[in-house]
Write a structure and sequence with these properties.
The complex is a heterodimer of chains A (341) and B (274).
Chain A: H1 30-68, H2 71-74, E1 78-79, E2 84-85, H3 88-119, H4 122-137, H5 140-166, H6 192-217, H7 220-228, H8 233-262, H9 265-270, H10 289-296, H11 302-332
Antiparallel strand pairs in A: 1-2
Helix pairs in contact in A: 1-11, 3-6, 3-8, 4-6, 5-6, 6-8, 7-8, 8-11, 10-11
Chain B: E1 21-30, E2 33-43, E3 48-52, H1 59-66, E4 76-84, E5 87-88, H2 96-102, E6 103-106, H3 118-128, H4 135-148, H5 152-155, H6 168-180, E7 186-190, H7 198-211, E8 216-220, H8 224-230, E9 233-238, E10 246-252, H9 253-258, H10 263-269
Parallel strand pairs in B: 3-8, 3-9, 6-7, 7-8
Antiparallel strand pairs in B: 1-2, 1-4, 4-5, 9-10
Helix pairs in contact in B: 3-6, 4-6, 6-7
The chains are: A mainly alpha (341), B alpha/beta (274).
């Protein structure tokens, strides 16, 4: 032991009752040290990769930002031939579609997770969880095709209903007469609303899995405490499960939001690109940053490419920001310790 | 339930008759594994019945059957009847929530709701059972229940603090107060002191003694001395290797500990096994 510490001075003049914190060797065995080293270097590697993507994007964005300055953020059009390039409309479109997806996905994910964790019989539980996992495994291009060919014809009826009954809200207004004998279907197709509906299908399994994870961790003791007081199951859920799972609910939703912001191919298949900032979510035409990049990447010149990368950088920053906020929320909650985000 | 007439704290007037609980040929299974075999026991009104026996003999299962907590486990089944004042609590048409409200339970590990303040913890049962009460009624109830649980003096100045900030013994008394707030006729306690230090244990035993003037109490305990100190009746459970639990002997606590009829009871209460 002595070789690990400051060697005890044999000289009698040094008092042995020194009341100072001593050095303590952690005494880790070789196996532990190796494992520690390996895991640490892998985590550092992940950080380095993420960081270098950010640095790369930022570096690529510099010429564009330098050239267009603030105009890059206020310009809505993307017409490189006329030297008009800006992300105003696509950023708004991205947020719009993500918010629509969340508004649809949040209640569905929450109620599904509650049903699976609290109400479903044991024999159904595992198959439901498998179905949710399966939903997450479907490639987004499939969701895109499904959204365009199968969802859209039905969703148009919802769009029309919303426009007819809530059209006085600018959000649901469509510049057509929904009561006309032949209603102009094409005014409703390829809208942000339909793209958002489709993206919500991809958000649900993600958000649901995170919520389910925390709901199932809600302490049995507290659950039984509530039930033993004569509570209904719903009362127990409100008193124990939901407060405990708050971090997971917020975190799962934010994680879903991150997914929705970045979703590319499904959106690209559904929307018809437009470059106007518009809040009429039901009417034809929408755009997002990732759809812009995917749609223009192929025929871009090198200058256009840096402009697209600059747009990508904006998306990267937005997503990182949201995930950071989510992590803070989750970390603060009681269930946070056991939540993956 | 009447919250309006504030009762004098600590010495609440006893119910006229109190409620008795009677288990009749209760068997229990988890899946195909039988854990209790035709257990019958009468738990008289306004007294303390202790359930003793080694681990794994079915005492806790039996206790959980008494307020329908048993069936919250997916594979749990049971046979027989549990009668509260002569009426089977498992009879068709009976409400599980009202049964649990009438037969309260205190668990081995203190389980206050951590997101709630001390005061809110006490009145949680009102919210959960949909009982409306004014702010003043709640305040009265909080004082009353905390006093009956022997916690009032320690927390009266910090009712707004989180329940989880209390010590283990205080948390357990908070849980007792929480159970009392819905005015149960019977209180079941599953080793309420096993996680507590001797001082807290003493306080809870005092609380039990005071409460037993008003309500029927059934307590599972591993502590022989505790059974002697708090209970008037005693039932000795035993499960021989590979067989379901049964009651070997039940009777007055004095008789069980001083003149046990069965040799196994004698061995157990004298600490020769278990």
């Amino acid at each position: 032991m002595t070789d690990l510490l400051e060697p005890a001075p044999p000289a009698p003049e040094a008092p042995l009752d020194l009341d100072e914190p001593r050095l303590i060797d952690p005494g880790l065995p070789v196996g532990d040290r190796m494992f520690h080293g390996i895991t640490r270097s892998i985590s550092v590697f992940v950080l380095v990769v993420t960081g270098s993507i950010g640095v790369f994007l930022g570096y690529q964005a510099v010429p564009t930002l330098h050239r267009y300055g603030l105009r890059f953020f206020t310009e809505t059009q993307w017409i490189p031939e006329r030297n008009k390039i800006g992300v105003a409309s696509v950023l708004v479109g991205t947020v719009e579609i993500a918010v629509i997806a969340l508004v649809v996905a949040f209640p569905l994910a929450l109620l599904t997770a509650l049903y699976i964790s609290e109400y479903s019989p044991a024999w159904l539980k595992s198959s439901l969880i498998a179905m949710i996992d399966l939903m997450a495994a479907v490639p987004s291009v499939i969701y895109g095709l499904w959204g365009f060919h199968i969802l859209q014809p039905h969703a148009l009826l919802i769009s029309r209903w919303l426009a007819t009954n809530l059209g006085w809200l600018p959000l649901f207004k469509v510049d057509t007469d929904p009561r006309a004998a032949f209603w102009a279907q094409s005014a409703f197709t390829s809208s942000a609303f339909i793209a958002g509906l489709c993206v919500s299908m991809m958000v649900i399994p993600l958000a649901c899995a995170v919520m389910l994870g925390v709901f199932r961790q809600a302490p049995l003791g507290e659950r039984e405490g509530a039930l033993a007081l004569g509570s209904t199951r719903w009362g127990m859920i409100r008193t124990v499960v939901l407060p405990f799972g708050r971090g997971g609910i917020i975190g799962g939703t934010m994680l879903g939001l991150g997914r929705a912001l970045g979703e590319t191919i499904a959106v690209l298949l559904i929307i018809s690109p437009s470059f106007d900032i518009k809040i009429k979510i039901l009417s034809n035409g929408a755009n997002t940053v990732s759809a812009l990049i995917a749609g223009n990447f192929g025929e871009a010149t090198s200058a256009q490419l840096t402009a697209l990368l600059a747009a990508g950088f904006m998306l990267f920053i937005m997503t990182i920001g949201i995930n950071t906020v989510a992590a803070v929320f989750v970390g603060r909650s009681r269930s946070g310790a056991g939540t993956d985000i | 339930m009447t919250l309006t007439e504030p009762r004098p704290p600590a010495a609440a007037p006893p119910r006229p008759a109190g409620s008795s609980l009677e288990a009749d040929k209760v068997s229990a299974w988890f899946g195909s594994n039988k854990v209790l075999d035709r257990v019958s026991l009468t738990m008289p009104a306004r007294s303390v019945t202790a359930l003793i026996g080694p681990s794994g003999c079915g005492k806790s299962t039996f206790l959980r059957i008494l307020n329908r907590m048993h069936e919250s486990v997916a594979s749990a089944r049971l046979a027989g009847e549990v009668r509260l004042n002569g009426i089977d609590i498992y009879a068709p048409g009976g409400h599980i929530t009202s049964t649990r409200k009438r037969i309260g339970m205190v668990f081995q590990k203190p389980n206050p709701f951590p997101a709630m303040s001390i005061g809110d913890n006490v009145t949680a049962g009102l919210k959960l059972t949909g009982t409306r009460a004014s702010r003043a009624q709640k305040a009265t109830l909080i004082e009353q229940c905390l006093t009956r649980a022997g916690l009032w003096d320690e927390v009266k100045d910090r009712l707004g603090e989180a329940g989880s900030a209390l010590s283990g013994g205080q948390q357990q008394r908070l849980c007792i107060a929480r159970s009392l707030a819905v005015n149960p006729e019977v209180l079941l306690m599953d080793e309420p002191c096993s996680a507590l230090d001797p001082t807290s244990t003493y306080r809870i035993e005092q609380t039990i003694a005071e409460l037993s003037n008003e309500i029927t109490i059934v307590i599972v305990t591993h502590n022989m001395q505790q059974a002697v100190r708090v209970s008037q009746q005693c039932a000795f459970f035993l499960a021989a290797q590979g067989t379901p639990g049964v009651i070997v002997e039940a009777g007055s606590t004095e008789q069980i500990f001083n003149q046990p009829k069965d040799e196994r009871t004698s061995d157990y209460v004298n600490g020769r096994f278990g």
